[in-house]
Amino acid sequence: GARRLLVTLWVSEDVPFRDVEETISRIKETAHEDALIIFGAVLENSKENFMRVEVVATDFENAMSSTQFKVVKKPDFKEPVKKASPDVTIEPVQPEIEDIPAYLRRKKKL
Fold first, then answer.
1. Within a domain: residue 79?
2. What CATH number corresponds to the domain at position 9?
3. What is the DSSP letter of 96?
4. What is the structure's pLDDT at 66?
5. What was the pLDDT predicted at 67?
6. Regions of the chain where pLDDT drops below 70
7. What are the CA-CA distances from residue 65 to residues 30, 44, 72 (Å)?
């Protein structure tokens, strides 16, 4: 397993703590026994019964060297590039407005 992990959990308040503990213990079981694991948590109350886990893992025991990777050719896309609609017109910016920061322009509603 990985020797260094950065783990971020996004959890809503209604998720039982035992679910969070189980998730953390599974990550610990998968990692190297001497792994450095840094945990972070974000309270995500915009959704109900929500948990998202992001793991960044590095320093694997049996890591492949760069010579062992296969080069994969990118597919050729055959869809034509769509051009902008002729209905769209772009008006030049007034020079005096250009010198005023955007947050001030919104305040003054120029």
1. no
2. 3.30.1330.20
3. H
4. 47
5. 45
6. 63-86, 88-95, 97-98, 108-110
7. 22, 38, 16
Q: Is the whole-model pTM more than 0.70?
A: no
Strand ranges, E, within the chain: 2-11, 36-43, 51-60
Q: What are phi and psi of 46, to 5 degrees?
A: -75, -15
What is the C-alpha to C-alpha distance for residues 2 and 10, in angstroms, rounded to an integer? 22
Range of the domain at 26: 2-62
In a domain, 33, yes or no: yes
Task: Put the strands of the sheet holding 51-60 in their side by side order.
Answer: 36-43, 2-11, 51-60
DSSP code for 100: S
pLDDT the model gives residue 72 = 62
Counted domains in the chain: 1
